[in-house]
Specification:
Strand order of the largest sheet: 4-6-7
Largest sheet: 3 strands, antiparallel
Order of helices and strands: HHHEHEHHHEEEEEH
Shape: elongated
Helix content: 25-40%
Number of helices: 8
Length: 349
């Protein structure tokens, strides 16, 4: 039998040329843009163009530049699609990582809050902002007393209470997870400090050099490296609010020599902030002064976000520990008046 005659090739159709060109243009756009809505059309148009061109008669010489365009468009579209998928997966992983860091940050603040309240149960008042080695001198000759920046901070006083189980359980406050538990003998760590000496005295360095992750936000670049503090106490609404008495309208939860009890928190334990997260000018966790106790300026139009007094560690907002022990995530766009109310014992001024 004679062999069948080959199917006749169609003449050139300009549509396939247009599709091949569009495929290349979309493929080129998909690589730098990392957008699947340009990569997928590039693949489809390149495939259609190549299928149509394969049904046409080949030009003399054997090479058809239009087929090369279609193949190039499909290749670029495939690369762009892969990059887009990798980009989406990276975004998902970053989001999950941020959610994990925020959850641990909240849990660490809950543990600090429980320690603060356990301190109150044991001592009858909340921790004082700094340990004053000469309280009598503070009243008789305050100009001779040690500066708050030279003293040990409230964090040293409450070390033994961080891992302690509460005698009274508040069902409205979630229990801190074991992840935030400090894997150290905190009573032994506290014993390394000499309260009557400055925080940077040589005798205190064995304790002050210890990195405590419970005081470091998981998003902090200093985590696992530096003995810094991400959660300073709120002193009130004034750069010098830490020196105010507890009945002052601008006074906050922590003061350098201020003794505060639950009865002093007249705005309500669930509405007053004790500690707040910040990336701004972190200092050693064992040092008194602004490293661990801070007042806020009264006239700022915005308090939180990157480069501001509060926050800067988590996108969109910051975490704040309330006196009762609960933790709240506050958006960066919150009203400044709300922050000022949160930072004072009496709900504003």
């Amino acid at each position: 039998y004679p062999s069948p005659a080959p199917e006749p090739r169609r003449p050139r159709d300009p549509r396939w040329t247009v599709l091949a060109l569009l495929s290349v243009l979309l493929g080129l756009a998909s690589v730098p843009l990392l957008r699947e809505w340009t990569a997928i059309p590039a693949l489809i148009l390149g495939f259609l163009a190549l299928r149509g061109l394969n049904g046409e008669a080949r030009p003399e010489g054997g090479f058809d530049w239009r087929r090369g365009l279609a193949i190039a468009g499909m290749t670029l579209g495939g690369v762009g699609l892969v990059l887009a998928v990798v980009g989406w997966l990276s975004m998902i992983l970053l989001h999950l990582g941020e959610q994990s860091r925020r959850a641990l940050c909240i849990d660490q603040l809950r543990r600090i809050g429980r320690g603060i309240n356990e301190y109150h149960e044991a001592q009858g008042h909340f921790p004082v902002g700094t340990h004053n080695p000469d309280p009598a001198l503070q009243h008789l000759a305050p100009w001779l007393a040690s500066a708050p920046e030279d003293r040990l901070a409230w964090t040293v006083a409450m070390l033994p209470y961080l891992n302690r189980q509460p005698k009274k359980v508040n069902p409205s406050i979630p229990e801190p997870s074991p992840k935030s538990r400090v894997p150290l003998d905190l009573e032994e760590l506290q014993a390394r400090f000499s309260p009557r000496r400055s925080w940077d005295d040589a005798r205190n360095q064995s304790g002050a050099s210890v990195v405590l992750n419970v005081f470091l936000c998981p998003a902090s670049s200093a985590r696992q490296k530096l003995p810094q503090m991400s959660y300073p106490g709120l002193a009130g609404i004034d750069p010098h609010a830490a020196f105010l008495p507890s009945d002052a309208s601008r006074a906050g939860f922590f003061g350098y020599d201020r003794v505060v009890t639950r009865a002093d928190v007249t705005a309500g334990l669930a509405y007053v902030g004790a500690c707040v997260e910040t990336a701004h000018d972190p200092g050693p966790w064992s040092r008194g002064g602004p490293a661990t106790v801070r007042g806020l300026a009264p006239d700022l139009p915005r308090y939180s976000g990157h480069g501001h007094a509060l926050g800067g560690l988590h996108p969109g907002g910051f975490t704040v520990l309330l006196v009762e022990g609960n933790v709240r995530f506050v958006a960066d766009k919150v009203s400044p008046s709300y922050v000022r109310q949160l930072a004072t014992l009496h709900g504003g001024f």
